[in-house]
Amino acid sequence: MSDAFRTTVQKKLSNGDFDCTKEFTVSMFSGKHKLMILWILINDGDQGFAALMNKLNGVSKKVLSNQLKELIDDQIVNKSETITGNTKRTAYSLTEIGLTLVPIINMLNDWGKDRLAQVEITQKFNQVNQ
Amino acid sequence: MSDAFRTTVQKKLSNGDFDCTKEFTVSMFSGKHKLMILWILINDGDQGFAALMNKLNGVSKKVLSNQLKELIDDQIVNKSETITGNTKRTAYSLTEIGLTLVPIINMLNDWGKDRLAQVEITQKFNQVNQ
DNA sequence: CTGTATCCATTCGGATACTG
DNA sequence: CAGTATCCGAATGGATACAG
């Protein structure tokens, strides 16, 4: 899923058209890796840039950087930098607003799990009857 | 949002990788107009092609056609054709599986409404304090 | 009315090289 | 470690013309 949502929603909103509330919500996680980024922050806690790179398996730095920027822009994710001596440490974490997305993400996960289980059963059923 | 989700998720699934349950759910409505299509079917009941075109405001036939095809493919939407005499009537409706998305879509709508209200209040607050 | 076929512009994400 | 810059290919959506 690309981000036709985010751009379109932002245009609508800046034109005073607020009839896109559900699209607005989806635009929070419509980047290809955003859901997974949020999932990691929810389950594994705060993460540095490299840790996210590893856990995301196959994202380029540019893309990860962009998706994080948008999440920060949308106030879903917070970036903190702590400097100890001459080493800088970056950490990304969920904001309070980001935390309010957790029930939604869990619901998405549950629906997908149930649906995939259904599909699997159907496939087996069809195989048996072939 | 484009449909990087749908394609990616389908590839993962066909490779036996089922670790994308939430992405799978989002892929159900990741096309630019799918959420709105579902919203219309939920609130206004079954619709013909032309009715959807009108209510969607600015979609091209090709795009609408594609998004409907994918929704049908995902078993979220059903297409029925009734022929009376020599006139054919097409109607799109939600399937039983499609109906199970309703709570999710309502949740998305609620979150967006609340969040936009927050943002609006914040903006007014900032204006007052300028 | 309900689409399909073609062409085109834009956007998004991936690979790679470079920087502090 | 944490990015930015550049170039590129693929995918999406829009406009328009044509068809059953």
UniProtKB/TrEMBL annotation, chains A, B:
Pfam assignment, any one: HxlR
GO MF annotations, alphabetized: DNA binding
Keyword DNA-binding: yes
Entry keywords, A to Z: DNA-binding, Transcription, Transcription regulation
HTH hxlR-type domain boundaries: 20-120
Gene3D superfamilies found in the cross-reference section: Winged helix-like DNA-binding domain superfamily/Winged helix DNA-binding domain
Statement: the UniProt record of this protein carries the keyword Nucleotide-binding: no
SUPFAM superfamilies assigned to the protein according to its UniProt record, in alphabetical order: Winged helix' DNA-binding domain
Name of the featured protein: Transcriptional regulator
